[in-house]
Amino acid sequence: MSLESSTSSNPGRPSTQRAAAKAGNGLPPADRILVVRLGAMGDVVRTLPSVAVLRSLYPGAHLAWLVEPASAGVVEASGLVDEVIVFPRGELVEALRAVDGLSFVRRLTGLLRKLRGRRFQLALDYHGLLKSGLLTWLSGAATRVGFARPIAREGASLFANQLVYGVDSESSRYARNAALLAALAQPAARETVRRQAEGPAAGGGALLSVSPLAQARLAARLRVAGRERARGFALIHPGSSAGTRHKRYAPASWAEVGRRLAEAGVQVWVATGPNRDERSLAEEIVRLGEGVLVLAPETRSIEDLIALQSRCGIFLACDSGPLHVASLVGVPVVQLLGPTHPAQNAPWSAGPVRRVRVPLPCSPCRRGCGDPACMRVLAPRTVARVALELLEAERSEVESTGGEGTNDREAGEAGA
Fold it and tell me: What's the average model confidence in pLDDT over 64-80?
C-alpha cells in the first residue's frame, strides 16, 4: 500500500504542529479533521476501529464525522468524535423528487457552509464514491485522502489529492480502512499503524460499550417482564436492511436453530428493531419456536442494541450491521454467510467469531435473488452446532483464565 500526493504539504499553524507532534509516526499536521463515511450502518461500524486509532494519533484535534441520518447513532454511540455532521440525504432526495430546486439548494448550501466553517485541514474519504469524494473536496480541507481505483468508484479519486494505492480489493472492510489511515504515516511506521487500526482496541477486545442510560433503560424494561437478571442467553437477530433481504435466513430455519439451542439448555432470545417489518419477522420466529423462544425488548436505538448485546452470551445473525456492532462490543458471534463476500465482510478480529457458509458457484454476488440457495443450504443443525461449540469454547476459556473470556481471532468457517 502506498500514498501519492499531488500537492506539497502545509506547515500549518503552531497548534497544528503541536497536534502533529503528538500524533507522531510522521503523520501530516492537522488539528481539524473530517471523516467521511456516509453509510450504510454496517460500513460505518467497520470504520470505527480505524477512526479510534485516528483519534489516538491526533488526541488534541477536533474530529468530525460526516454521516447520513440512519447511521449517525452509531457514530454518536462510539464517543470517538467531537462532532457528528449529518448529511441530509433524505431531504435532498425529497427536494429533487419534488422538483424543488430552491429547497435543494438551501439544504445543500447550509451543509457546505457548515463544512467550510469548520476549516478542516485533513479529510479522509473512507466511502470512496462520487458523493463522498465531492463532499470531501467541498469541505475545503487542504489534505484530502482517498482510495485510488478500483477501491474508489464513480470518479471519487478525482477529488482527493493524496491517493492510497495497493489496497487488496478482496480484503476485509476493516483491513481496507486500516490501510487508508496507515498510508498517512511514514513508510517505517505504516505497518504499526495498520495493525493498530485493524486489530483490537488497546486493553481489550471491545471497542463499543454500553452507556449507563441505555443499561438502565433496558433493566427497567426487563424488570417489567420479570427478566431483569437475564444474561448469557443466545440472541438471534434475523433482520437486515430493506434492500438486502436476500441476506436473510428463513424464519423456519431460525426457529429450528433456536429449538436446538433450547434443547441443549441455552435460553434463546430473538431481537427486533423499531420498524414493523423487523418486529413481524421476530414474532414469526418466536411463534415457530413453539414456546421455547423469547421475544427480546425492542431496540429503538443503537445504544439499546448495544445494551442488549452486552447481556447476551452469543449473537447469531446474517451479514448485517447489528452483527458487526456485536463484534465490536466483544460478544461471541456466529455469522451466516450466503450472497456476501466472506473475506470482505468478515467481522472484526478482536472477538470470538464463527461463520457458517457453503460456497456455491453463484456466491458471492452483489444483487442477490428472490430465493437465495446460498442461505437455504445452511442447515439449522449446523448453525446450532457451531453456536454450541463456540459457547463451550468460551466457557472453557473463562474457567481456565479465572473469569476472562477468550479473544479468539480465528474466524472458523463451517459448511452445511
Answer: 95
